[in-house]
Here is the input.
Amino acid sequence: MTIGPAENRSPTTQSVATVPGMTVRVTKFAGEYAALAAWTGDTEAELRAQDDFHEEDRDHWLAWDGDHVVGAVHPWRSPDGRHRLFYDRCRPDAYAPLADIIDGPCQTGIDADDTEHLQALIGAGFVEFRRENDYEIPVVRIDAAVPAGLRIVTADDVIDERLMMLDCALRDDVPGSDGWQPNLTWFREETYTPPFYDPLTYRVALDGDDLIGLARVWLGPRPQPHLGMVGVLPAYRRRGLARALIARALAPLAERGEPLVTAEADVTNTASHALLIGFGARVSGGSIELHRS
Here is the structure.
């Protein structure tokens, strides 16, 4: 059973893309932190801190109407080979010109209730690929036994390279993340570098020395802690291990008085839905993943 996705330095030169009939112009981000902060509502310090998470340069693009930013996108080729577009706040007419900076197939996501921006993405050539439910899970202590012969440890008790390989294996069962390839630099950056990582809320299951499952809760950057993935290898499913992993990942948050965590799961994943409902979760919304060929 798996629940899952859901993860710089400024270039010194600037290039421009234009779309016929559009008033929006698009430029590669070149350090315009003040203009971007004024549009997104983030502080300049927050934006600069986000740039420091990754060793390799990543391009960012801004949409402009005159001297004002009206949208931004952060393209990224993930370890499964897919080109993913992470949009910041965007005016509807900024989606298409921002998407046009990427040649070929790409995908992005949108809140299922955001019909105006969904239509803008459809107008930019995207089609619906799949849907996810969003959940809110109350943080309470739950007595969930670990299956006999297995044990659960914190993420800092296992070797990072072995944890990466487990992560890749589990992603094969996450819709939209199959084919994830090992990338230790990326995995270390995404796991250990951000301030949102807490080994106490990142639990790993073992059978002897073999890593067989995990549950991880990130402490940000979302408003509430987020259950980013729960996964158990096929041979160990239907034994209560996923429930035990989540219970131990939530326990430190219960001690700290956190009221809830969020999560998402594909709408077709009935097993994950039942697992989360068993923790008192409620569906709080949804999102749509879109693909452009």
Observations:
- The CA atoms of residues 140 and 254 lie 6 Å apart.
